[in-house]
Design brief:
heterodimer, A: 181 residues, alpha+beta, 6-stranded antiparallel beta sheet, 6 strands, 19% helix, B: alpha/beta, two-stranded antiparallel ribbon, elongated
């Protein structure tokens, strides 16, 4: 882990090296839904088909569709992509993806760290670490090494007022909705 | 203290209700106010505070608060989703699915959401609604939301969720008629169109869904947290933050001494006078001796510390209710990571200053099993309030009342603080040893939600104090009283056949207790303890404060010290080295059967409490030995 940190920090902004971690999506089958969760009524998912832009583990698929870039294969030279730990206090970033173990990632996403969410670095603890991040009006403290595995891009000023959820609605697809059945 | 944390036995209602519901569960994200609502609806007093993870196990009660004694309400730990991340969340999910033995499966749900952060909190609504149980959605803290300019259309929200929605304030008890309405008319949902939910178990889709729902229902988030941020600018400041933290801690102990000591002395005088009032009413002889010199002297020697313990609890209550505790964990994370734990372990450790038992339960919020075990094993080192009577007694008896810095801090406070620091250092060193050997694990991420600051209500603070006082009195009336009576009897056996056909009590040293004391004396003599202290140590294995009552009884039974105050008697009977060694012994030794029982329950084996007990005993013995000899070399 120590070594990986060094490598990552050496990379300049937007050029994040792979740092020894295998791509998380590699070789992993995508389950459309987790049958354990379907104890009760199954909802009518046609109406909110856009939710299907993500697979059950919460990884965004819309990135495939939008940019032809797999979310976890880090491509060199994509501009303005950074990690959360590099956000200056007071700066806001838009979350792109999380690169953490499954359970931690799932937990963080349920706390609001989902793709397209706006995350603000609010303050650092007196010792300089952890850092308090604001997301969805909540304040959540993360250590440097956790924040380092969360990729963000700089927030565009004009997107300030637009809710994150509106952006990806056009990827709703009846075919994908069918697949969840 | 043993009785403070046991869940009282729960009896389900005998006559099942004619309606559809029998069991209702309270569920919601952490720190949404479920336990506050539980207390409102049941009239019980579940612990509430302002940080996530206060409730770590299910708790059941009858809904007497809304006149439905036939219904069982279950309070559950907070969850973010139905995929549990830590032990407390697993409890909640298991109960909700009816997989928790001993707890009935709930057939209706009260979903409690914090209306200040509705768009985030609605994420939980999807998996809960998908359970298919009748659900009432309660938007808590609505008074705060409205006061800060937030709003939401509950009717639209009810239509979106296909479930009734009500604005409530659990703290002030407003809007609760919606709960009784819901319970009296089961099954009248507002469904007029099919419920649409996101893909379950998928956080991203749940987040989008929640954002859309809150937008469609016209949710306007309240102006947030300006106050909280301003306070944090100071309390989490690079320099002022840690300094204020230390100042608060020192201040607490200074107040416990400078304000608490006169209170305790006054209280002690009242107790002693009460004893003297009763004396003429009793026939002189063994009965008078048993009741006054035995029981009353023993029990009242512990009771006098009630004011000081309540003061300490008042401060802990203020720290917990304002929301500062989570900030303390944030500040401490840097220290905690050097010993291999993370800042989250600091919250149980801090609450162990009150009592180790709820603290050990609170470790359920620590996700990593090895981290959790390490925290459980070091928790008894933290100076719990049961040690306070012992420290206060010995400090008042042996440490001169000298003040430094123009009366700003006293020598007694310094000794007290060093004992607390000794316990903390013991905990940290042990944790470091454990984490760098048998409990080594990869670092787990530190994820901590910081609550907004809130003004503690007088009601909740006074309820805490009343509860604490009643626990203390119950302890004094049960364990301490029975130990004292047993000691008095053992101190007066075997009866000696005196001249003239009468039976009298033996000399104290020849009694059963005296012989037992002299038998163990060789083991403790190197620490500077006499045999009476040895008996005290034996009895304090039950609970630490029993030490004080044992001393009260033994010195009360000894004719040489009978007339003296306990402080004076100790001062005559012990050296300074022995007294300081005794304090350090109490700082390290694990003398609490209830803590051992709860460690056994949480770790599922007797191995860990046994290891813990022996390790702490050995450490206490060595530390006391060193202190005794060093102090005697300097002052003796």
């Amino acid at each position: 882990m120590k070594r990986a940190e060094g490598i990552r920090q050496r990379g300049s902004e937007g050029e994040i090296s792979q740092a020894g971690k295998p791509p998380l999506l590699g070789g992993q089958t995508v389950n459309w839904h987790d049958s354990r969760e379907f104890d009760g009524d199954v909802c009518d998912s046609d109406q909110i088909g856009r939710i299907l832009k993500s697979d059950q583990s919460g990884r965004s698929l819309s990135w495939n569709l939008r940019s032809n870039v797999l979310p976890f294969r880090r491509v060199q030279g994509v501009p303005r992509v950074s990690v959360l730990s590099e956000l200056k206090v007071g700066a806001t970033g838009i979350l792109i993806a999380l690169d953490l173990p499954e359970s931690v990632q799932n937990h963080l996403m349920h706390m609001g760290f989902v793709p397209d969410a706006r995350v603000t670095a609010l303050r650092r603890a007196p010792a300089g670490d952890p850092t308090v991040y604001g997301v969805d009006g909540m304040e959540i403290a993360l250590r440097h090494e956790t924040a380092e595995a969360i990729r963000v891009k700089a927030a565009e000023p004009d997107a300030e007022s637009r809710p994150a959820s509106q952006k990806s609605t056009r990827f709703a697809s009846p075919k994908l909705a069918e697949a969840t059945r | 203290m043993s009785t403070c944390c046991e869940t009282p036995a729960f009896e389900p209602p005998k006559v099942p209700s004619p309606g559809a519901f029998k069991t209702v569960a309270l569920i919601g994200p952490p720190n949404a106010g479920k336990s506050t609502l539980f207390n409102r609806l049941t009239g019980l007093r579940q612990k509430v505070a302002n940080y996530p993870g206060v409730t770590v196990e299910q708790r059941m009660g009858l809904m007497a608060g809304v006149g439905r004694e036939d219904l069982t309400l279950i309070d559950l730990p907070g969850i973010y989703s139905l995929t549990p991340y830590s032990e407390d969340a697993r409890v909640a999910v298991d109960v909700l699915r009816g997989k928790m033995p001993g707890t009935p499966k709930p057939d209706a749900v009260l979903l409690v959401l914090d209306s200040l952060h509705l768009s985030r909190q609605l994420m939980l609504a999807a998996p809960i609604l998908s359970l298919g149980l009748p659900t009432l959605v309660l938007l808590n803290m609505s008074d705060l939301m409205k006061a800060r300019g937030g709003q939401v259309d509950t009717l639209k929200l009810a239509r979106e969720l296909c479930a009734p929605v009500a604005l409530i304030s659990a703290t002030h008890g407003t809007g609760l008629d919606a709960v009784s309405l819901f319970l009296n008319q089961p099954g009248n949902g507002t469904a007029d169109h099919p419920l649409t939910l996101p893909v379950l178990g998928n956080a991203a889709s749940a987040h989008i869904w929640a954002a859309q729902v809150s937008r469609r229902t016209g949710y306007k988030a309240p102006l947030s947290q300006e106050g909280t941020r301003k306070i944090d600018n100071i309390l989490l400041h690079r320099i002022w933050g840690p300094l204020l933290f230390i100042a608060v801690v020192v201040g607490v102990f200074e107040v416990v001494f400078s304000l608490g000591q006169p209170l305790s002395d006054g209280f002690g005088d009242i107790l002693a006078r009460m004893g003297e009032l009763v004396r003429p009413l009793l026939p002189a002889g063994w009965l008078q001796s048993l009741i006054l010199d035995g029981a009353w002297k023993g029990v009242s020697s512990v009771l006098v510390f009630l004011p000081q313990i309540l003061l300490l609890f008042l401060f802990i209550g203020i720290l917990e209710d304002t929301g500062y505790l989570a900030r303390a964990a944030l500040i401490a994370d840097r220290v905690m990571r050097t010993i291999g734990l993370n800042g989250k372990a600091f919250i149980p450790l801090l609450s162990a200053y009150a009592c180790a038992i709820p603290a050990i339960m609170a470790t359920r919020t620590i996700e990593n099993r090895r981290d959790r075990l390490a925290t459980i094993l070091v928790t008894p080192f933290m100076t719990c309030s049961a040690r306070l009577p012992v420290y206060l007694l010995l400090i008042a008896a042996f440490i001169p009342h000298t003040v430094y810095l123009h009366g700003f801090i006293g020598l007694q406070t310094i000794v007290m603080l060093s004992l607390y620091v000794a316990g903390f250092v013991g905990a940290m060193t042990t944790a470091w040893l454990l984490k760098s050997s048998i409990l080594k694990s990869s670092e787990t991420p530190f994820i901590l939600e910081l609550p907004q600051y809130r003004m503690p209500t007088l009601r909740s603070l006074s309820l805490r104090l009343v509860d604490r006082a009643s626990v203390f009195l119950r302890q004094a009336g049960t364990i301490i009283l029975s130990v004292t009576l047993a000691l008095w009897v053992l101190a007066h056996l075997p009866v000696v056949h005196a001249a003239g056909g009468t039976y009298t009590a033996p000399e104290l040293a020849d009694s059963v207790i005296g012989r037992l004391g002299h038998f163990i004396e060789p083991a403790i003599a190197p620490l500077g303890f006499n045999w009476k202290i040895g008996i005290g140590l034996l009895s304090s294995v039950l609970a630490r404060e029993v030490m004080v009552s044992t001393m009260g009884t033994l010195y009360g039974a000894d004719p040489a010290t009978q007339a003296m105050h306990l402080q004076t008697a100790l001062h005559h009977d012990m050296t300074l080295g022995g007294a300081l060694a005794l304090m350090i012994f109490f700082a390290f030794a694990m003398q609490c059967t209830s803590t051992m029982a709860v460690v056994k329950r949480e770790t599922n084996s007797w191995k860990w409490p046994a290891v813990q007990f022996l390790y702490m005993l050995a450490l206490a013995w060595i530390a006391a030995f060193v202190v005794n000899h060093v102090v005697m070399a300097i002052f003796g």
